[in-house]
Amino acid sequence: MGNRQRVTLIPGDGIGPEISDAVTKILAATGVEIEWETHEGGEASALAGRGVMPDATIESIARNKISLKGPTTTPTGGGHQSANVTLRKRLDLYANVRPAKSLPGYKTRFDNIDMIIVRENTEDTYAGVEHMVAPNVAQCLKLITWEGSERVARYAFEMARKLKRKRVTCVHKANIHKLSDGLFLRAHEHVAKEFSDLKFDSIIVDNLCMQLVTRPEEFDVLVLPNLYGDIVSDLCAGLVGGLGVAPGANIGATGAVFEAVHGSAPDIAGKGLANPTALLLSAVMMLQHMGELEKAERIEKSLQAVLSEGKNLTRDLKGTAGTLEFADAIIAKMNK
Ligand code: NAI
After folding, report:
1. Which structural domains are found in the chain, ordered by start?
2. How far is Cα of residue 336 from the mean position of the Cα atoms in its chain?
3. Out of 65, 101, 173, 333, which one is annotated catalytic?
4. Which of 52, 108, 291, 312 could disulfide-link to 321, CB 3.0 to 4.6 Å?
5. pLDDT tens digits, one per residue of 36-68
């Protein structure tokens, strides 16, 4: 197959197939050599009795090591397990990566933010060890291991180096959680010694939050344990315009899954109205992961040009363009 990279495409539910079509069309216009292996996953697959994440889908990601995934619907209060939780567990996707970058033309309180948030995705209070020790006393275990901390630290430093970032900041509360967060911090200090080309520092999570809402432009790459990462990554998404334009990636030793942060938007599904920006920016992250930095940059610049121009915006951005019109406007900018 030459230099073609095989990528597992999971269109997903709701608006997933529409935004996936728009994004694959934009990627094709860059000339990147991708061979898509389309697989099912999500509610439609579960309802058809094939499981929320069929083995064939998991095997395809494990084989190709890269997947672009559309949003999947999870029923509340019963029904099938979340497709994302299934993927995270089966592929041990230990790092959740969420860039927060100001988009020109998308007005927010700050216009010069450019951060990447790396959240440890498997440990901390999310290890699922929680019980009642007495009728009115609940206990939840916070689990932090050297191995778990070191691998997410190593990923963050390697990514920072590849993307020519300058600074990696470890976020913790080791003044109070001296053993658990202390271990997380020590693992980062240990890994930092191998990356003398990058500035390394650390910050206590409450101080970080105060600084993020006053001078977010000063931060570069942040690495956090699971719980702080969950909260701070949404805070950072809010700083640049909300979850609707937030891309993300889940990285593991056996595969990387790139997807938008938003859901399947059943209210607008099938109408050709969805904004593909978040999935497109997830695809930009995927191209960076594949080493296709120039093509990633071309897409980003064209997207920014379309947003700044304001002529072909989707309805959520107060425009009147449909999903494909928006995608075609981006392609037109790339071809200029
Ligand atoms: P949602 O993100 O799907 O929708 C919230 C609101 O934002 C809706 O009004 C929707 O129309 C709008 N919206 C979302 N994405 C948009 C886009 N690209 N363009 C224009 N408008 C957009 O959140 P909701 O309604 O809470 O969840 C719907 C389903 O999605 C649920 O089943 C939930 O479990 C699932 N979900 C899946 C995720 C994933 O697969 N990564 C993440 C979050 C939710």
Report:
1. 1-107+244-336 (3.40.718.10), 109-239 (3.40.718.10)
2. 29
3. 173
4. 312
5. 999 999 999 999 999 999 999 999 999 999 999
